[in-house]
NAD-dependent epimerase/dehydratase family protein (Novosphingobium aerophilum), 306 residues
Amino acid sequence: MRVAVTGAGGFVGQAVQRLLASRGWEITGLDLAEAGLSLATHRVVGSLDDPDVRCAVLAARPDAVIHLATVPGGAAELDPAASRRINLDASYDLLVEAAAARPGLRFVFASSIAVFGEPMPAVVDDATPLAPRLLYGGHKAMIEQAVSLFSRRGQIDGLSLRLPGIVARPASPSGMKSAFLSNLFHALRGGQPFVCPVSAEGTVWLQSVACAAANLVHALDCDPAGLPVSRALTLPALRVTVHDLVAEVAQQCAVAPELVRYAPDPALEAGFATQPPLSTPAARRAGFGDDGDLSALVAAALAGLG
Ligand SMILES: NC(=O)c1ccc[n+]([C@@H]2O[C@H](COP(=O)([O-])OP(=O)(O)OC[C@H]3O[C@@H](n4cnc5c(N)ncnc54)[C@H](O)[C@@H]3O)[C@@H](O)[C@H]2O)c1
């Protein structure tokens, strides 16, 4: 199988590449820099909004596309034009061009729980309406619609997966508003104090990066008959309190949980730490999963840090 991965050099993209390579699948990897593309068979360095770059991505005639490249949430609010250019226009262009190059190809779009907006309702399930407030979530919701439309028209065989918070990303600046969740892992692993910008009682939906990559790769060959007409699935995730997360990371890193001090930022608390109970039967029926339990999630996230 030949798979094109946009944003392949990023946090999730590198885990996806590892999984695809372990199956012997041919990878065309696109990113802004070559550094993270070492596992790709074909490396395309450039920006998604350049038509020649998209053409180069599709030149290897992929059987499927995993579209991860994005302007993240924090960066999108700071630069709305860039969010429109990459998260909306170039993503739509990629859909059109992929459908033309290989009609009916499987197109997996990395959407986000940001499509639900804030505040979230008391429970989120497969019937929860989308009500994004951030541009990032709004543009994700618009591309979900395009994936759904193009699939109904038979132009692609598409699927949008709404990812929860993925841990633990590299310590470098990411432009992601949720990066504090990963920074917590880095601090405790290094035995360093950490000021947590959300409360201990806060609740978050999480997946390890290995679990997220497994779900994205599962999306390449899951049965379209089992997918909803929206072609969008909210992925299963573990819902944990920040207190329990801190306790588990501290225990697995053999450090004291008291290294963490809480100084909640109201905006981060509202946006990232008030996540209600989550029910995802459609994704579970289609074979997608979470990490199982908190101990397994933390172990996988720490293992991913190398
Ligand atoms: N990490 C999370 O917690 C999370 C949560 C929900 C959704 N997602 C989604 O999953 C996907 C992957 O997330 P991630 O954490 O790996 O992000 P990331 O920022 O680590 O990786 C994205 C990659 O895309 C590349 N990229 C950005 N703009 C580009 C452009 N114009 N042209 C080509 N490449 C470009 C970046 O260089 C980067 O390597 C994204 O679409 C993101 O919205 C992630």
In short: The longest strand covers residues 105-112. The radius of gyration is 19 Å. The pocket of nicotinamide-adenine-dinucleotide is lined by residues 7, 9-13, 30-32, 47-49, 68-70, 72, 86, 110, 112, 163, 165-166, 169, 174, 178 (CB under 6 Å). The chain has two domains: 2-164+208-234, 166-206+237-278+292-304.
